[in-house]
Amino acid sequence: MTTPPQHPPTGRTARRLPRPSELRPLLRMARPDPDPVRRRLARAHTVGDLREIARRRTPRAVFDYTDGAAEAELSLRRARDAFAALEFRPSVLRDVSHIDTSTTMLGGPSAYPFAFAPTGFTRMMHHEGEAAVARVAGRIGVPHTLSTMGTISPADLAAAAPDTRRWFQLYLWRDRAASEEVVRRAQEAGNEAIMLTVDTPVGGARLRDAYNGLTIPPALTARTLVDMARHPHWWLNVLTTDPLEFAALTSWEGTVAELINTMFDPALNLDDLAWLRSTWNGQLVVKGVQTAQDARRVVDAGADAVVVSNHGGRQLDRAPVPLETLPSVVAEVGGEAEVLLDTGIMSGADIVAGVALGASGCLVGRAYLYALMAGGERGVEHLTTILTAEIRRTMALLGVSSVKDLTPDHVRLG
């Protein structure tokens, strides 16, 4: 007599023990990576991930200098909120089998529609500093901007990254002869463009720096001595590498606000822009434009390009949101001058949105500083892998195969 097959009660799934041959493909035990930098970067899939790594690895005062903004930090928060609130409008059934991310910025080629923004005191964040960032820029084919407050001279940066398109950001000092010397050095070092920053007549109230007692360079106080125990590698690198050398001054001992209020010229006006136009033969960019009316004024005074920026929210709190201001600036001067976008950019999708709304490219600042703090030059390299993948993916999902085909129809501001 044959025994009938046994079936589980209704609603229950039959179970069995898996065979070893079935388990073998599932067991993928990777060998631990002995390289600590590679290990921590492997966990970073977004700029936000790099920021969190940077926060853990860097002294609080240094991280806060990078991460913070002015007063209640409303300008920075609103800039990022504007990107978060925008809506992409994709077009389907488009051939996106090949994505062309190349474009032109300030009269030259760029493999992607972004450049690395000028940042001050960069070697304070990581001892490899601007040279590491500029080398990465050269390898992926985007421009790099050295700040007047950078921690390497224009000539030394040119030697470290000879194949990189280099721009120089300028603050005009009260001492015009000193400013003229800075411009001369930038030109001799092969910089293609001068980017004049115009939104710093006085220093913004960066309260995190005030609460942390940050000085440049960081002073050895009771608080910093305690911090040494928490971040020994950072302090070891600072104390065993060359002292901070600046792009445009020999040294400084004090706070950032004191430096701005002592050396920057609050009397800067359109006559000074005209003077710079007569002194500089390359591309002239004005950074810190926040209204269409001012864009018109500086272009009429000789600027080849403007950067719509509120200084990363680090100057005037409650300033206009650059992304929201961008369309009006493009409408006013876009046919006569290039328009770049800065402030709040934390992803490749943000870059795509800025270009769709009329910018020829975007400036990436804080994002690469987080990456630098997280892993030095390799951290910045990892950041570019994240950003370029996000740019390509966003373009493909929008149904756009080339940067030149991005239009305002692809974006709706929230």
UniProtKB/TrEMBL annotation:
Q: What protein is this chain from? A: Alpha-hydroxy-acid oxidizing protein
**What keywords is this UniProt entry annotated with?**
Flavoprotein, FMN, Oxidoreductase
Q: Which residues form a coiled coil?
A: none
Q: Is this entry keyworded Oxidoreductase?
A: yes
Q: Where is this region: Disordered?
A: 1-37
Q: Which cofactor does it need?
A: FMN
- Enumerate the PROSITE patterns for this protein: FMN_HYDROXY_ACID_DH_1, FMN_HYDROXY_ACID_DH_2
Classification via InterPro entries: Aldolase_TIM (IPR013785), Alpha-hydoxy_acid_DH_FMN (IPR012133), FMN-dep_DH (IPR000262), FMN_HAD (IPR037396), FMN_hydac_DH_AS (IPR008259)
Query: From which source organism is this entry?
Result: Actinomycetospora rhizophila
